[in-house]
Amino acid sequence: MTASEKAKAKTEQAKGKIKETLGSATGNDRMAAEGRAEKKTGDAREAKEKTKDAFKR
Hints:
Layout: H1 3-26, H2 29-56
Helix pairs in contact: 1-2
């Protein structure tokens, strides 16, 4: 996994988690849903990069 792609994935996951937590704490369901979606996007990016790394070896 390239360092920049790994950083993007981790950033998306962290931002998503923060949004989800804030949304839940404030009762903002839309923000919580956006946070979950952003976190899943980061998870998918990380999985994609790990798969690419597995085939490179």
